[in-house]
Design goal:
Elements: E1 8-14, E2 23-28, E3 31-35, E4 51-54, H1 57-61, E5 66-70, H2 76-79, H3 82-88, E6 93-95, H4 97-109, E7 118-120, E8 126-129, E9 132-138, E10 147-153, E11 156-160, H5 178-187, E12 189-195, H6 208-221, E13 226-229, H7 235-247, E14 251-255, H8 257-268, E15 279-280, H9 282-287, E16 293-297, H10 307-313, E17 326-329, H11 338-350, E18 354-356, H12 360-363, H13 373-383, E19 385-391, H14 395-407, E20 423-427, E21 430-434, E22 441-445, E23 448-449, H15 454-466, E24 468-476, E25 481-491, H16 500-519, H17 525-544, E26 549-556
Parallel strand pairs: 3-5, 5-6, 6-7, 11-12, 12-19, 13-16, 13-17, 14-15, 14-16, 17-18, 24-26
Antiparallel strand pairs: 1-2, 1-20, 2-3, 4-22, 8-9, 9-10, 10-11, 20-21, 22-23, 24-25
Bound molecules: zinc ion (2 copies).
Length: 557
């Protein structure tokens, strides 16, 4: 029963208006449950930034109320921020075995393994987090052990699907928990949060098993070495690659750190079944006849540092591409990665490889892990929620998902297409938008968490566009004269040897500006610097139509 005065709040700190850094929050009274803690890879304009995580200041401010983090599956966009969050908020973490196995790798790398409180769950578990009861149901996705969660609160049941599709012939034989979803629907669900990734795609997403059949066909037809690149986390795909290799008498060499890590943990936990004798070291792969070898590699997204990209550049320490190699890209580029992938494909062709790539519908060597429109409607019809919140998608996908919900009969005013930080409040069965909470992004560059802000990014952008000019000058405070300089050093602005007249004139302008200011008795640093900057910037723009960053360094003796 709902307690008087208490209300249920549902919002996202990540995962809306974007695919990545998923983090959803369900709060009832003083109990907060967090669903997922993911990261996102930076966009083009975030120069030099390594990863992006959600802004968790809301959770930090309410740290005494956060009862736990529940993870739906082991993809980076759902678990990648766990180490960063745990540093600020050491709360218990709940997830299935494979999910926690993958989290464990991250925690070890971050040196947090000993202090983290990890609690494995199954689809049978019931976890009490304050006044909220959490249960789990299995869904199909491109990684095993993926679950949706149901949170029973005093106000009603909130269901979060996690990432899902409906695969009628799953590779591991583990079907989605249709009955459980239907039971939830029958007993009444207050709000559903559902994956919008493929809301723009009509029909059904294909079965993973179909990919296995196509891989087997290609393996049988190929008389040379085969290199397959896919997501390290796609354990079912990896299983099918091993099966195709076994069928055609090939041994498998694994390259790429994340591939080695995931295959290791998945084997250890029993999610990947393969004969030890099939595994070979990359060195052995170079000695065996090509038709006896499969190389399983990272780099399906063209990541410049991945094993596949290194091979394509001729920069891998053991393996090089040989003419006649067949390279299968068993993945679709995530939006934004297309040009990286294209570059790798070009390089592979140049080395004489045959590359199987392109839309999954044509090559048959990939299927999405996310349900298309008919599957999204099926989920809505099984769960039959009173209120619907499309999540995990860019804004247009959330919109399309909202339309699908209307089609299956959910009233428009019961659907909330939210932005990060928008709060849906439900009290006595009535939902409305409440006051917003703090939400946003934190950029991580190397070891710095959140120290790269808009100003740093603006500077990096200026540097990348028009370069930099450093002006060094030493002044005598007493005499009010220039002692040495100005020396102008430039990088990325103009080719200095061909621009001597320009640089001489620039030096003259700096000298004149400083002399004028000193005769006017202007001696404070910031005025000196700003005047130099302004005068130089104006001159350079007139001459070159460029606006380099100008950094005056004025020393006084
Ligand atoms: Zn996923
Ligand atoms: Zn996801």
């Amino acid at each position: 029963m709902a307690r008087s005065g208490q209300k249920l709040q549902i919002f996202a700190l990540g995962g809306l208006g974007e695919i990545g850094k998923n983090m959803y929050v369900v709060r009832y009274g003083d109990d907060i449950v967090v669903i997922d803690a993911g990261l996102k890879f930076p966009e083009d304009e975030m120069l030099g930034v390594d990863v992006v995580i959600p802004d968790i200041s809301y959770l930090v401010e309410n740290r005494d109320k956060v009862r736990g983090i529940v993870l739906t599956h082991g993809h980076e966009d759902h678990i990648g921020a766990v180490p960063y969050v745990l540093r600020q908020l050491n709360v218990p973490i709940f997830g299935t075995r494979l999910t926690l196995g993958l989290v464990g790798i991250k925690l070890k790398e971050a040196g947090l393994a000993s202090q983290a409180r990890l609690h494995p769950v199954t689809t049978e578990s019931v976890v009490r987090l304050g006044s909220i009861l959490v249960t789990f149901f299995r869904v199909n996705h491109s990684i095993p052990d993926a679950v949706g969660v149901a949170l029973t609160t005093p106000e009603g049941v909130v269901v979060h699907t996690g990432d899902f599709k409906f695969d009628q012939t799953p590779v591991d034989g583990l079907h989605a928990d249709y009955q459980k979803m239907a039971d939830l629907g029958r007993s009444g669900v207050l709000a559903l949060l559902s994956d919008s990734t493929n809301a723009e795609r009509p029909g059904y997403t294909g079965s993973e098993r179909r990919v296995g059949e196509n891989l087997k066909r290609i393996f049988k037809q190929t008389r040379s070495r085969i290199i397959v690149a896919t997501f390290a986390s796609n354990v079912n795909r990896i299983q099918q690659i091993f099966s195709a290799a076994e069928l055609t008498g090939r041994k498998v060499a694994i390259v790429g750190r994340s591939m080695v890590n995931v295959v290791g943990i998945a084997r250890e936990l029993g999610y990947l079944k393969l004969d030890e004798a099939m595994l070979i070291e990359p060195e052995e792969a170079t000695k065996l006849p090509p038709e006896k070898v499969v190389v399983l590699s990272t780099g399906s997204q063209g990541e410049p540092l991945s094993a596949l990209a290194r091979m394509a550049r001729g920069a891998h320490k053991t393996l090089s591409i040989l003419p006649g190699d067949v390279v299968i890209l068993s993945a679709t580029p995530i939006p934004g990665n297309e040009r990286f992938v294209a570059r790798v494909i070009d390089a592979l062709f140049r080395l004489g490889a045959e590359v199987i790539y392109g839309p999954a519908s044509e090559t048959g060597v990939h299927v999405s892990g996310h349900g298309s429109q008919e599957e999204l409607k099926l989920m809505l019809n099984l769960i039959r929620p009173k209120y619907f919140i499309p999540i995990h998608g860019e804004y247009r996908m959330q919109r399309r998902h909202a339309l699908l919900a209307e089609e299956v009969g959910i009233p428009k005013n019961h659907i909330f297409v939210l932005d990060l930080g928008d709060v849906v409040e439900i009290q006595n069965g009535v939902a409305r938008l409440g006051p917003r909470v703090n939400a946003g992004q934190v950029l991580i560059d190397g070891l710095g968490v959140g120290d790269v802000g808009n100003i740093v990014l603006r500077d990096r952008k200026l540097l990348s566009q028009d370069g930099i000019l450093v002006v060094v000058v030493t002044l005598s405070k007493q005499k009010g004269t220039i002692l040495s300089g100005p020396d102008i050093i430039s990088r990325g602005f103009v080719y200095v040897r061909e621009s001597e007249p320009l640089m001489e004139e620039a030096t003259r302008i700096v000298t004149n500006t400083l002399n004028r200011l000193m005769t006017e008795n202007v001696s404070d640093w910031s005025s000196l610097k700003n005047n130099v900057k302004d005068a130089l910037s104006r001159f350079l723009y007139e001459q070159t139509r460029r606006r380099p960053m100008i950094l005056p360094i004025i020393m006084e003796v």
